[in-house]
Write a structure and sequence with these properties.
Keywords: ATP-binding, Kinase, Membrane, Nucleotide-binding, Transferase, Transmembrane, Transmembrane helix, Two-component regulatory system. The protein is α+β, with helices and mostly antiparallel strands. The protein has helices at about 1-30, 35-70, 85-120, 140-145, 160-170, 215-260, 270-300, 315-330, 350-365, 420-430; strands at about 125-130, 135-140, 175-185, 185-200, 200-210, 310, 335-340, 345-350, 375-385, 385-395, 435-440, 445-450. The protein has three domains: about 1-110, no CATH class; about 120-210, PAS domain (Beta-Lactamase, 2-Layer Sandwich), CATH 3.30.450.20; about 220-450, Histidine kinase-like ATPase, C-terminal domain (Heat Shock Protein 90), CATH 3.30.565.10. It has ten helices and twelve strands. The strands form three sheets. Strands 2-1-5-4-3 form a five-stranded antiparallel β-sheet, sandwiched between helices.
Length: about 450
Amino acid sequence: MIFKRLELGLFVRFILLLGMMYLTLHYLVQYTWLQVASGVLVMLAQVWELALYVTRSNNELAKFLQAVKQRDFSQRFNEHTTNSSLRQLHASFNLINDTYRQLHIEKEAQFLYMQTILQLIDTGIVAVDEETGEVEWVNDAFKKILGVPHLKSIASLDMRYPALYEALQSIKAGDNTLLKLKLPSGQSQLLLTATAFSMQQRPLLLVALKNVSATVDATETEAWQKLLRVMTHEIMNSVAPIASLADSLGRHLQHEREKKEQEPDAAPDPELLQDTEEGISIIKKRSEGLLRFAHFYRNLNKSQHLLLTTVYVQELFNSIDGLMRPQLEAQGVELICKVSPQDLQLNADVNLLEQVLINLLLNARRAVQGRPQPQVLLAAHELNGKTVIEVEDNGTGIPEELLESIFIPFFTSHKDGSGIGLSLAKHIMLLHKGSIDVETKEGVGTVFRLTF
């Protein structure tokens, strides 16, 4: 529309100019010099006006572009001019100015919003020019953590915090660095995280600084508490059967002593002597196993050297039976041991294997509590050339949603559990190059299977 009106204006002015040229030539032929001079002046005026008319739009456009270059969108163009083409042009310029001004306001609002958020968070954030080390922007949290009133360049940190300065110099995008630093608030651990971006073709590095001392301390405290619970749980698992067996032996000996006082000449009961000897042997073996477990757990994060020996499964089951049967029968739980064939054997660390079986039997005892005719079966057999030991119960079973988590360290569904028994059993089986599997059915029971 603007161009159509421009062309119409040019056409009208061109026709008027031709008409004036015709009149001037007419008066020139008649030698009427006054009219000729007047015609020439009028034509010059028309040419001047035509030039102004043609260049006016260009001048207005040049003025607008200059304002855009200077990012000055406050300029207003007259939309009430007599020139209709300029009216539309000015209206377009004003619309563009209004749009850019609105975008600028929204951008400023977003920047202010983000800046306010970054100032409120307790994580220090600094944007650094990668080439010069100059600080482009830093929030108050960063300065507060380091105790500096202002920061123009990371080089200014060299004198106060040389370790931090070196870390900021060497850190790359995507890196996470944990740094111990003595701050005005005391010894602290700082976590540095970096990401890269560019602004106006300048490479910048955005570094987040977080004081994680409290988090690390809380994590360490929680880890110690878990470790203490685990050690207490595992030690009690072994000490309780030992104490129960020792109590039984003590009652038998007390009974024998009273009998001796009443019948001084009576010979010692050979069955009692045999039971006492077996009980002492079991206590001695389990105590040695408990000490070995404590040593094993202390070095759990190191490579383990198993004390592999030839283990006769029947003898292993006899030891477990003598240790666990009194405790299970005291709670009304029947323990059944089966080995097929009787001479079945395997290469294993007998003390750690005993610890695994004790944990599984104690879990089975918990599972059958409150069940009619509670029963736990400890069985061993050969399958495809491999030795398999199973601990089966007729308890409540394990819910399907928990099956994937039961071997995760510190996971437990019981408030008095440590969450380490099954994960430790799996670790011990992996050290033996074996495996531990579970089959369960809710309301029917559970089978834990050790395969060597």
